[in-house]
Amino acid sequence: MTDKRPILTLITGADRGIGFETAMSLAKKGQHILLGSRNMVRGKKAVDKIRQAGYDAELLILDVTDQTDIDRNKLIVNEKFGYLDTLINNAGIALDNHEDAATLSTNVIRKEFDVNFFGTVSMIQAFIPLLKRAKSGKIINVSSNMGSLDLASDPNSKFYNVSSLGYQSSKAAVNFATITFAKELADTNITVNSVNPGWTATAFGGRDTKQPVPDGMQTVQEGARQIVKLASDPRNDLNGTFTENDGSLPW
Ligand SMILES: NC(=O)c1ccc[n+]([C@@H]2O[C@H](COP(=O)([O-])OP(=O)(O)OC[C@H]3O[C@@H](n4cnc5c(N)ncnc54)[C@H](OP(=O)(O)O)[C@@H]3O)[C@@H](O)[C@H]2O)c1
């Protein structure tokens, strides 16, 4: 008997930006999208856009910093589907923009860790049991080249002189979570990988999207490409990697 159940993909923070583009692209490939948004109006609008294009998506109201919300959504997915193929931890914030670490508020750093790191870890912990029921489970953590310790400490890297302690350390911590869960789940059906979308034209970090796109900034399609590639690869044979469109990145 063939397995007819759809590939089920949950994406956090997917009502706009790279998350939405990933949702639309994977829906076009026939995946059933559980579109995470913490805003009912924006979330519904995003789901409607995918449905109007003729593809499958449904809304999960989900704030990744709220454990009650995460547990409620886990129950919903369990009751409705009983499994999850792919979890894409995309929700992210950047509140410190090249500020001196000497004076940066630790409250700002805590907020960034709350979404970027603790949100990611909480989602993984909650959904592992459902991912284990997939034929081939995937966890994709949307990280950043700004979280690469190797690049930040390499005088020849363009990231050497970047200083956003809160955002960078929270993404470095995301990468550590990727390595840890990849090893812990290596004997299961689940792979865990980090992806760097690259500098992308979204509203991220408070960017005004009405402003002209600076040189070197990618489109959202380019930003979502490597995430979509991993999420739609039937082989699912990468585990514990950190990649971008151009290939591997140093941790
Ligand atoms: N754009 C870039 O240049 C770039 C580069 C490298 C990595 N990244 C990473 O790519 C990911 C997506 O970024 P983006 O550029 O698409 O940014 P974006 O347009 O600002 O989208 C971020 C999404 O995350 C959601 N979010 C924030 N806090 C959340 C929470 N507590 N719970 C659930 N959702 C939450 C936002 O929802 P609200 O509207 O409700 O806040 C929004 O839907 C992030 O992880 C970011 O770090 C981006």
Automatic annotation (TrEMBL):
Keyword annotations of the record: NADP, Oxidoreductase
Gene Ontology MF annotations: oxidoreductase activity
Position of the signal peptide: none
Taxonomic superkingdom: Bacteria
InterPro entries to which the protein is assigned, alphabetical: NAD(P)-bd_dom_sf, SDR_fam
Similarity-based family: Belongs to the short-chain dehydrogenases/reductases (SDR) family.
Descriptive protein name: Carbonyl reductase
